[in-house]
Amino acid sequence: METRAHYVLIGAVVLITVALAFGFVLWLGQTKRNYDQYDVIFRERVSGLSVGAAVSFNGIQKGEVSELTIAPDNPGIVIARIRVDSDTPVKTDTRASLAITSLTGPSIIQLSGGTPGAAALTEVDRREIPV
Q1: How much is the pLDDT for 1?
Q2: What are residue 60's phi and psi, to 5 degrees?
Q3: What is the dihedral of CA 35, 41, 44, 46, to 10 degrees?
Q4: pTM above 0.85, yes or no
Q5: Is there a contact between 87 and 27 (Cβ–Cβ < 8 Å)?
Q6: Backbone dihedral angles phi then psi of residue 36, each to the nearest 5 degrees
Q7: % residues pLDDT > 90 (the chain)
Q8: Residue 116 and residue 10: Cα distance in Å, rounded?
Q9: Phi, psi at residue 122, to the nearest 5°?
Q10: Cα separation of 2 and 125, whole Å?
Q11: Measured distance CA(112)–CA(97) in Å, rounded
């Protein structure tokens, strides 16, 4: 004797659950975060740095590299456009350096420094993208 199974009902519940989970993941991925963009000028090689590399501030990941270009007037200069969380205190005396995360790992941009009394870089540098 065949057991009484509701295959259609079970299938519908599974499909609805998968659709809801997929919708939740899409909603979660679209949460808007406020970012500030900066251009970082490197006058040396930036081996291992790539688009999508992490940007950390005092060891805490606060953003990523969004674009890498070579200065059109000087091929020895690399311009890295970074975006960091808007709550990151980037000051006029904050310094950016290239850091290697591990022996074979990718390079990251490490932001450090910044005294409490220094002005925010966005207040001093009035360009569209502060440098």
Answers
A1: 45
A2: -105, 125
A3: 20
A4: no
A5: no
A6: -115, 140
A7: 27
A8: 60
A9: -70, -25
A10: 77
A11: 8
Q: Which amino acid is at 128?
A: E
Closest to 65 (Cα-Cα) out of 49, 78, 48, 76: 49
Cα gap 20→8, rounded to integer Å: 18
Instruction: Dump pLDDT digits (tens) for 73-128.
Output: 989 899 999 999 888 888 888 898 888 877 777 889 999 877 888 888 888 878 88
Q: In this structure, which amino acid lies at residue 62?
A: K
Neighbouring C-alpha atoms within 13 Å toward the C-beta of 91? 11
Query: Which amino acid is present at 51?
Result: V
Residue 11 in this model has a pLDDT that exceeds 80: yes
Fill in the amino acid letter for 113: G
H-helix or E-strand spanning residue 39: strand 35-42
Q: Which residue has the tokens 């975006």?
A: 83
